[in-house]
Specification:
With about 400 residues, the protein is an all-alpha fold. About 60% of the residues lie in helices and about 0% in strands. It has 19 helices and two strands.
């Protein structure tokens, strides 16, 4: 018969607790690491200094929430920067292994999960009313979220160009930072952003330089032939209005495709800031998109999807931030002196989408029958062809972009 609970508890007093696996779990001895010492909980919980209490002696209840929300943001920004550093290091090589590519995908996915959490966290801030906020807002001057160094580092390491930024008081975006903070942010501008690392990776996409596959030239010929056939069909239409409309559609599509098939036109669009990726990188991205169901292109396709998701989640965060600010202060100026809502609303724009070109790849989708047939050797998974001398194997590892074995 089982012993009474009270008796069991009495016998268990002062004894080690057993885990599910049977091993004994003992409390930490003096000097040993513990949950609190490992996480430095005491220090962490001492960092919420209420300005309302410090300046007036009367703590504003919701200032605690405001501080914790923003401190949590900064902690997550730190983790995002940590992941971006690992992703950039793994991809910024001439030869990237399959294992490394899987880790890149995992890192990007983790960044996206964090960004989704940051968007959701705005709903907690929404539990504070404008009247709650106004009780301590004046104590925050001239501090501003614009001064978040880690968010600026994130933007720079992602690839946001200064020319695409909205000016802050007609000055550089670093003008609101302290000299030390500004130096840190300016140094990040000298690092290779993820956009450029991805660009170089795409330029080495397996199959682009394969003579037998001849992807780009064959695709161009097939698209041109299709457009010529549509134009000929339009000229046979008896209805003049339908004929004019169809010819107009064909001409528009011809100009659209010419903007990528004509390298000079593409480069001009890059120079003008309309596009971000080189022509060769765009070719690689389209190849991955068209053949995403092939084993060797599946992980690269997932990576491109994660990159677009980062832009999407950052834009959602900006949008949520704008909504919260408008709700809290209306059209008042920000505490840092910016135009507040109006400034933030201007950042919800495609100019802040680093991987905008990946979103626009859908502009160039074509019917499956227009795609060049991929050689059998290029379709096979790498492990099935790694001992052959086929050009597609030697020059194009499925994920590594290696030029040699």
């Amino acid at each position: 018969m089982a012993e009474p609970v009270a008796k069991q508890a009495k016998q268990g007093q002062g004894c080690p607790v057993s885990s599910a696996g049977g091993e004994k779990i003992r409390g930490s001895k003096a000097g040993e690491i513990s949950y609190g010492s490992y996480l430095q909980v005491d220090k962490l919980l001492s960092l919420q200094r209420l300005e309302s209490e410090a300046q007036s002696g009367k703590p504003a209840h919701d200032e605690m929430l405001f501080i914790i929300i923003h401190q949590a943001y900064e902690l997550w920004f730190k983790q995002i920067l940590h992941e971006m550093g690992a992703v950039g290091t793994a991809m910024n090589k001439d030869c990237v292994s399959d294992t490394a590519m899987l880790k890149v995908h995992s890192g990007l996915h983790r960044i996206n999960e964090i960004l989704k959490l940051l968007v959701q966290q705005m709903t907690i801030l929404d539990t504070m009313t404008p009247l709650d906020f106004i009780t301590f807002r004046d104590y925050l001057n001239p501090a501003s979220g614009f001064q978040s160094v880690q968010f600026r580092l994130f933007e720079n390491l992602l690839g946001v160009a200064e020319k695409d930024r909205v000016k802050y008081h007609c000055a550089r975006y670093t003008s609101a930072l302290t000299p030390t903070e500004e130096q840190v942010v300016l140094e990040s501008e000298q690092q290779t952003p993820l956009l450029r690392i991805v660009e170089r990776w795409l330029e080495r996409t397996p199959g682009l330089d394969d003579a037998e596959f001849n992807f780009w030239q064959t695709l161009q010929a097939n698209v041109t032939k299709s457009l010529d056939e549509r134009q000929a069909e339009a000229n046979t239409l008896p209805d003049d209005s339908a004929k004019v409309q169809m010819l107009s559609d064909v001409e528009r599509d011809r100009e659209t495709f010419d903007s990528i098939f004509n390298q000079a036109k593409h480069e001009k669009l890059v120079k003008d800031g309309v596009r971000r990726l080189s022509n060769k990188a765009t070719q690689g991205a389209l190849l991955i998109l068209f053949y995403r169901d092939e084993p060797r292109f599946h992980v690269p396709f997932q990576i491109l999807s994660e990159l677009m998701d980062i832009d999407t989640h950052v834009m959602k965060w900006r949008t949520a931030h704008v909504a919260v600010v408008q709700r809290m202060i209306g059209s008042k100026a920000g505490t840092g002196g910016s135009s507040g809502y109006w400034y933030l609303r201007s950042t919800v724009h495609d100019r802040y989408k680093v991987f905008l070109d990946l979103f626009n790849l859908s502009t160039f989708l074509v019917a499956p029958e227009l795609l060049p047939a991929m050689p059998e050797q290029c379709v096979l998974p790498f492990y099935m062809i790694c001992h052959t001398k086929h050009t597609c194997c030697i020059n194009t590892h499925p994920y590594s972009n290696c030029k040699t074995h």
